[in-house]
Fold each of these.
Amino acid sequence: MLSIQKYAAIDIGSNAVRLLISNIIEEEGKPVMFKKNSLVRVPIRLGSDVFISKTISAENTQRILDTMLAFRLLMKSHKVVKYKACATSAMREALNGRDVVKMVLKNSKIQIDIIDGEEEAAIIAATDLHKYIDDSKTYLYVDVGGGSTEFTVIHEGTAVASKSFKIGTVRLLNDMVRKEAWIELEMWIKEKAGHFDKIEVIGSGGNINKIFKVSGKAMGKPLTYFYLTSYYNTLQSYSYEERITVLDLNQDRADVIIPAMRIYLSAMKWSGAKHIYVPKIGLADGIIKSIYYDTVSSNTQ
């Protein structure tokens, strides 16, 4: 017997807000399938407010509400049966973050959970990577966001270390990452990943997805450290305006892509990885799976 339901994940990040709608396909005797149905991205960039003023501005508060009202209608049109909304770095650091959450709930009926960095890393790490990785190998999973980056070391199919660092693209753009944070990250990567003979990096986030698309590589094939370094230098040789007009990058991507590459390249350098795989998964995918497995767990109790 075949069952298809739609679940939705809302990821309220420091750079953009996303709605992912997925089909959950269950057939007796077969493993459950998660199939992406629709993805909507709105570049609100909450981090530009919060990392400077510690509050979400009135303008962006209204934009968040408008976006949540739109997402509510889209979920209704798609006949979504379950959803979960998670807010990350910017919302958890905003002094008025909880007030915004209450206002959104009152006006849109969408409940937003503000999750901490460790929970964010755990949700991402719980994403079903086994379709994309070789369980006999070791990987450093790097999920770059606007306000923070989550790192997970995966050895023989198991997450053995995971940590969130306040190093993100919007934070770097606003020159709000201290040198000490980079030193702490370097030490953590070398301690947790440096003793493995061979390690590869898995990258997730909109920026590395865009870089992978530009590379023209086939899905499943990695990018090399050399390619990433070369593209990083190319991007830096263009002005912000030229990255939009000549390189055809969206305006909300053309600035954050450079600090994102700095994070990925640093992770590769400090771990000794020569390749980075880009499976196009992230927090929203992890949220979808957490909804499903929480549902299965409650049904079997």
Amino acid sequence: MTMPASSETVVAVPDAGPRVPARRDVSVVIPCKNEAENLPELIAEIAAALDGRDFEIIVVDDGSTDTTPSVVQKLMQTRPWLRLLRDTRSSGQSAAVRTGLLAARGDVVLTIDGDGQNNPEFMPAMLDALQKSGPDTALVAGQRLKRTDSGAKRLASRFANRLRGSILKDGTRDSGCGLKAVRRHVFLLFPYFDGWHRYLPALAIREGYKVAHVDVVDRNRRHGTSKYGIMDRALVGALDLFGVWWLIRRRKNIPAPTEVNIDGR
């Protein structure tokens, strides 16, 4: 998966600043809102974890009202692999993930929360697991151990995960972990809806692909407070859960066509 820097293909983009790589091996998408204090350290940790790989980091600013944009812009001055996408109004975490996905140049997209609780040191293991699993596996999902959230959030998350697992049969203990590695071309097949980032394993299986898992350990948030409450994380997702169940039920057959040459072979 690693591509030497000297072999990068570059294209000139008129009136768009410096020349940029046409493709990357890995794109890291960080959806965030008001995380100016957490982002510098998180970005440095991601860069260290992916050292030696061909990567880019895309920060998707979901309507921040703090100094998040200026902090990232300053970092961009010395980090050519860092990009910033900004929405002046908040559209939510799912929309931010989708924005980063559509802009990503990588063959594989890594997602990670912007609050610093997800530890980037697990990223190499997730990429290696995806590569070793072969093309039939589209997604590697992080599975959190030793949760650092409050007792109420852990309880709500545990209830939501058990309910989701019993209905969707996605074989995933913790679909809410922000750390995921997904093949971009499969990611683009998933039907979008608000809250989709919590159902990526089930959506991958719906498309006929396999899902692998890597245990990860969360950390305490260093700065600020959570932007997503218990209602957003669990209870509001009940309608989405049955919506995904309906989507799976309506997926009758997965086409597997083969291209036929003019001579019929």
Amino acid sequence: MRVVVGADVGGTKLAVRVAPLGAQPGTEPGMEPGIEPGTGQDPAYTDHLLAADGWEASPVDTAAGWLLERLARVVPQGAGIAAVGIGAQGCDTQHHCAELAAAVEKSGVPAVVVNDAALLVPAAGLDAGIGVVAGTGSIAVAADAGGEVLFAGGWGWVLGDEGGAPAIVRDAVRAALAAYDAGSADDGLLAALLGHFAAPDPQTLARIVNDEPTPGNWGPAAPAVFRAADAGSALAAGVIEGAARELELLVSRVVGRGAVGDTVVAAGSVVVRQPRLAGAFRARLALTQPQLTLRLLDVPPVAGALALARARLRTS
């Protein structure tokens, strides 16, 4: 038995999709409906979720070993991998992706590696477009007419990741504390942040946020910012509008460098789960890039990795 495998390596989780070599692509999510898990029939693929503990995209030989060891855990015993498609966080240049693919292929498995954001367009069933992730971090990925991969953003939460959850919380805390310093009445944002962080006062809030400046501490407070905006906080609404503007800038930067496609495919917990951000992002694109349509990805990005594996198999 031979299988094709897709892998989506994120900061905390590794999603893997395994399909028998003869399974029809039409049974994959996002394409024509086929046999689905839970219907009493054998599914055309199986999904697996593993912890991404210890994942580092460099050095590539170590990264390849890390990936292959975990793929071996979920591939059926005795099955051979015909091809693997990998979307990897931390592979932020075309050269790096090619090096990691070559390292995986040393095992005899044909491979293609892309940045994890580059899975979004094939997951949506498209040949071209712009992928945008807004979750823990933010990045835009596309390709030009010559096939060169274009990146914008993805610099990490310390240097940017505008539009991601930690950046939204950082900006919200700044806005709330600045208003407090100015003697303005709380419009609901400060109270929302104090409540999330269980802080009795603004001074304690500042200490809690500053003492642990990590995505794990900041990111989970993002829903509190959206709730404050929905309750009428102008400060929170302004922060979210700013995040949408930054996401639009990522798209405009790759468009300016020749990105092809007429669809922006967005994924990530913040933009997918928060209609206010998605709506503001869509409105910004309508103003600055009216030729583009925003589509929120409604299937797991790992579906794109499996599509890339099938494409790699056709060229091997």
